[in-house]
Amino acid sequence: MTPSESVPDKGLVPDKGPSPLLREALRTVASTLKAEQIGFALAGGYGLWVHGAPEPVHDVDVAVADRDVEAAAVALAQAGLRVERPPEDWLFKAYAGDAMVDVLHRLRGEPVDERLLATAPEHEVLGLRIPVLPASEIVLAKLEALSERNCDLEGLLAVVRAVREQLDWETLGAAADGRPFVEAFLVLVARLGIAPDESFSKICHTDLPPAR
Fold it and tell me: Does the reported pTM lie above 0.90?
């Protein structure tokens, strides 16, 4: 059963439901990059959706190699998408009508390269065979983006709960070093029983404080 055919747990489905416009934008971007032989991988919320998380309702994320970003922008513009360059230097945006696709060429502060794209196995998504980043890589990017201004734990909890069996918890724990928001989130998932049934010290390299 492909993600487009599956019926996720109703408790995890966003109130707005799936967006046909976003799905079509995903298909257009993926088929265009494939036709132009530009390496890419599905990332973000739709990448996690392929792994079993709730379907996102805001945008689509794809990752392309930093060296291919200009070729990707040209290819998508020629396919009829509206390409916009925001002030951020780690992505550009491609619009299919009102549906937005973020084309990322930096993840977790590092340029996307062929090594990262090579970790993305192919999955059937909406009738296309496309590479999808591993769940751990996508969750790591979301965790490292947590900050005082970006601290939506509700949405992150839903996706982590859905894909928990596919996550490399040791790697996630290592990401908590020096990042208090990541550590706080990992404490929370340990308390909620979302993390594996093992000592918290193996996840976050520290002892879980006693419950009060």
Answer: no
Q: How confident is the model over 138-178, as pLDDT tens digits?
A: 999 999 999 888 888 888 999 999 999 999 998 998 888 88
The dihedral through the CA atoms of 51, 52, 53, 59 has a sign that is: positive
What SS3 string covers 106-152? EECCEECCHHHHCCCCEEEECCEEEEECCHHHHHHHHHHCCCCCCCC
> How do 99-104 and 91-96 pair as beta strands?
antiparallel
Q: How far apart are CA 27 and CA 128, in angstroms?
A: 7
Over residues 22-59, the pLDDT tens digits come to: 999 999 999 999 999 999 999 999 999 999 999 999 99
CA dist 180 and 21 (Å) reads 37
What is the average pLDDT score of the chain? 87
Residue 39 and residue 72: Cα distance in Å, rounded?
A: 9
Distance between CA atoms of residues 116 and 41, nearest Å? 9
Helix (H, G, I), strand (E, B) or coil at 207: coil
Give whole-number Cα distances, 210 to 160, 187, 189, 191, 192, in Å: 23, 11, 15, 10, 14
The CA distance from 117 to 108, in Å, is 14
